[in-house]
Predict the structure.
Amino acid sequence: MKLGLLVVGSVAFDSVETPFDKIDNALGGSATYISLAASYFTAPVKLVAVVGDDFGKENIKLLETHNIDLEGLELIEGEKTFRWGGKYHYDLNTRDTLFTDLNVFENFDPVIPEKMRSSRFLILGNIMPSLQLKVLNQMTDTKFIVCDTMNLWIENNKDDLLEVLKRIDLLVINDSEARLLTDEPNLIKAARIINEMGPSYLIIKKGEHGALLFGDDKIFSAPAFPLEDIFDPTGAGDVFAGGLIGYIHKTSDMNFDNLKRAVIYGSTMASFCVEKFSTKGIEDLSNLEIKSRYLQFLELSKVDDNE
Amino acid sequence: MKLGLLVVGSVAFDSVETPFDKIDNALGGSATYISLAASYFTAPVKLVAVVGDDFGKENIKLLETHNIDLEGLELIEGEKTFRWGGKYHYDLNTRDTLFTDLNVFENFDPVIPEKMRSSRFLILGNIMPSLQLKVLNQMTDTKFIVCDTMNLWIENNKDDLLEVLKRIDLLVINDSEARLLTDEPNLIKAARIINEMGPSYLIIKKGEHGALLFGDDKIFSAPAFPLEDIFDPTGAGDVFAGGLIGYIHKTSDMNFDNLKRAVIYGSTMASFCVEKFSTKGIEDLSNLEIKSRYLQFLELSKVDDNE
C-alpha cells in the first residue's frame, strides 16, 4: 500500500555568509531541504510549493533526480522566487537575517493537487501558520502530520499556530522556540505544556547538543554528531525533519522506539547537510554512507550495561 | 588489594541564593561534595582539606557517617573556614559570586598524611593549580589521577595548570572552560588540543545538555537527566566527579566502556545533588535509589537498532 508523503513549504534562493565563505542565490527553502532529505528513504516524495520563472532547470532536474513528484510545484510566470539572505556569527549558533524578499511567496495560496489530498503522511515546513491551516483543510485522509514553525510565527501569529498545533501529531522546534511558545525555561516542563496544546509527540532540537523526543510519557535524548567542521547550518533543521519523516514513512511505524530511530536518521541527514553549503551536502549521498553514519550515531551514546 | 582513593580540595561554607530560596553557611566545597558522592561507591574515601574551628561537629559527623577518613582534614584553631557566596540567575545556568572569604584557605599548604601518599587513585578538586602540583609532588604510587579546574585558574594561573595537565589522566571541565583553555569554539577540536596538553581522557560537562567523554580516539555522549525542578546547582560538577571517581575506584577498570558507565554514575549523583540545597540531596541516598536512576539514565538514550 502506497501511503504517500506530502511536503508543503517554501522553495527559495538563499544568500548565506558564514565565517568561512559566502554563497549567493543557492537553492534553499524548507520544502526543498525536507524533500531532498526524505527522498533517501522513500519515493516519490510529493512537493507542494511555489517558485518564479527564475527557478532554473538545473534545480528542477536536481529534484527530479531525487524522484520528487513536482506536480504540486506551482511556477508563476513573470515573478521571482522567494529569496532570503543571512549571515552567521562566529560560533555558527546564531545568525542575522539580512533580507527577506517574499516575491511569489507573498500571495502563496497552497493548492494541493487532487490526487495528493489523500496522502497519509504530511509534513508542514516552516511557513505562516495560516497557510499550514489551509493545507490541513484540504487533506482528507492523514494518518501522521509533522509540523515545523519558528519564532516569527510564535510571536506574531500565535492564534493560528495554536489552531495548527491542535491538528498535528508531531511538532519539531528548537529549544529557544519551545521556551518562547510556552514561556517556560525548563524544557521538560515546556514539553508537557506543548503536549497539552495538541501534538502527541514533540521534538526539541538543541543544535550542537542533539535533540529531545517526547511522547508516550517517555523521553529520548539523542546526541549530536561530533563534527569538527560545520560549514553552513542553513537547512539543518529542515533536513532533520526530512530524514525523520522519510524514515517514518518508509517504515510506517509510529511507535516510540521507531520514532527514536527516526530522530537518529534525521540527525544523520542534518550532519551531512551542514558539511557543505546549501543543499550540496545532501544532493549525492549513498545509502551506505547514510547507514554508516547512522551506526556511528548509535555508537556515540551506547552504554554496555553488563557491569 | 585496597587501592585507596584520595580526595584533595576545598571544604567550605556556602551562602547561596537561587530564584526559589536562599541558604546561609551551608556545607560546601569541592572536596566535601566529591567525597560524599564517592562514598556511595567505595570506602573509606580519604579526604585532605583544611577547615577553621568554626567547622561544627555536625559536619564532622556527616562526613564520618559516610565512612570518610578525616585524618587529612586539618583544623586550624582561631581561624575560620573558607566561605563563598553566590547568586544564581533566573535560568540557573549562570551565577554571580557575591563574596569569597578565603580564611584558612589563604595559607593552605596541603600535606598528605604519610599513609595516604601511596593511594593509587587521586582526585584533585578545583583548587589553585600550584596547590594541585604540591599534592602531585607528594604522591608515590598513583595509577589514575582525575583533576577539576575553573576559569579563574585558566585565566590567571595557566602555566601551573599546564604543568598539572601533563601529570593527570582525566580532566573534568565544563564547555566554557574547555573553550577558554584552548581558544577553540568547536568542542571536538578543543578536546583534541586538551588531549595534547597531557590528559588521555577528558570529560566536558555541558550542564542541562549532558556531558562528553573523550579518549582512546572515541567519543561518548551522555544525556542529562530530564529534571523538572532544579533547586540548587551548587556542587553538581563536584558531585559528578565524585560519583565518577567513586565508581572507577570501585571497579578499578579504566577501559573506555567502563568510563562511560562512570560518567552515567557521575551524572546520576549530580542529578540528586541539584534537587536540594547544599549537600542535602546526596546525604542520605540508598543504593537502590542510585541504581534505579542510573538505569533510567541508560534508558534515556537507548536505541533498539534491530530495525
Residues 14 and 225 of chain B are 25 Å apart (CA to CA). The longest helix of chain B spans residues 256-273. The mean pLDDT of chain B is 95. Chain B touches chain A at residues 90-91, 185-189, 206, 208-210, 212, 219-224, 226-230, 251, 257, 260-261, 264, 295, 298, 300-305, 307 (CB under 8 Å).
